[in-house]
Amino acid sequence: MEVLRFHLRYTPATIIIDYRSKDEQEERRKVLEFQNFQNENDIDLLARLVLNRCSDLFEGKASLQAQLVSLIKRLKNPSLPLDYSKIDLNVYDLSKLTKEQIDTVKTLMDDTFKKNRITKNDKGFVYDKKVDFDSIPKEASDWDD
Amino acid sequence: MMERFLLDQYSNQQQSTYALNIFTYKGKHPEIGDVSIKFWDTAGQDSFDDVHPSFYFKAQAAIMVFDVTRKITYTNLTKWWDELQRHSPGIPVMCVANKIDADPSATSKSFKFPQTHNLPMYFCSASDGTNVVQIFRDAIKLGYEQKQNPADQFMADVFDIVNQTQSS
Question: What InterPro entries does the record point to (chain A) (predicted)?
Fold first, then answer.
């Protein structure tokens, strides 16, 4: 199963998930309407409800789960300035955000970090791991253009 | 990066304030011996503006880090450089390109920013640990020397290191 996109509807509070299963070409859609949404303050609980109902879409996908949480928060508080799922991190200036917002974006970035991470408990762990990159021939970065 | 460096500590004190983390490090530096250092770490957001003067107070060295997967972080270095020069002119500064695990091709690029300001340049990955400890040890050494002799001698040392980096 692959999540393709999320949609938000504010009244009534609804999260719509477009997805596709591996062997199908056709898109499918789940529509999750929250009843009593404005009285419910526990964002994590709401997120867990969604995760339970759509476990086949979210299982093991940390960044998608984080995205879902941020969307539910946004549903709760439409004045949140940012749709994290749409920003292009290469050009978006995170320094304009609050610490809380940065933390949310960072959970989205965490996937690569976790995938490549070598921790103290891993076999190849060397505390002072050194690699010499000075000897690699360099060409000018186009970031300076 | 901080957390990767502090992996040799049994416990580390961390104070978190708004937009700022302060890490205390007590350890053995291979060239200096026992050291006790406070690292002030900010993600660089604008809302941090309020604490800037205290942030720079008594700073002995600075590590400027950008993310090789996000150009904006590199572009913003110029802004940080100007601010650093306003508050702590003359302290040793290092430039670090982080996240090379996510884009290894960055290690075959040269960047104008460190060249323009004569800064030693490092490539690292906080994720897999590449060069992180080296960077902090070098920063500690630079900061230590800056504290010992804040005058010209230490600038000469910086240029020594820069020259070594460039010629090797």
Answer: CEP19
Q: What percent of chain B has pLDDT over 90?
A: 48
Q: Give the span between the Cα atoms of B12 and B3, in whole angstroms.
A: 9
Provide the terminal-to-terminal Cα distance of chain A, rounded to the nearest Å: 41
pLDDT at B23 > cutoff 80: yes
Where are chain A's structural domains? 1-78, 79-135
Per-residue confidence band for A139, with pLDDT thresholds at 50, 70 and 90: very high
Query: Is the full-model pTM beyond 0.95?
Result: no
pLDDT tens-digit readout, B74-106: 998 998 898 889 888 889 999 999 999 999 999
Residue numbers in A near B69 (CB within 8 A): 89-90
Give A 36-75 residues with CB within 8 A of chain B.
none
Query: How far is CA A19 from each of CA A29, A61, A102, A109, B4, rounded to the nearest angstrom?
Result: 6, 14, 27, 22, 37
Chains A and B form CB pairs within 8 A to the count of 104
Nearest chain B residue to A93, by CA: B72
Check CB contact of A123 with chain B, cutoff 8 Å: no
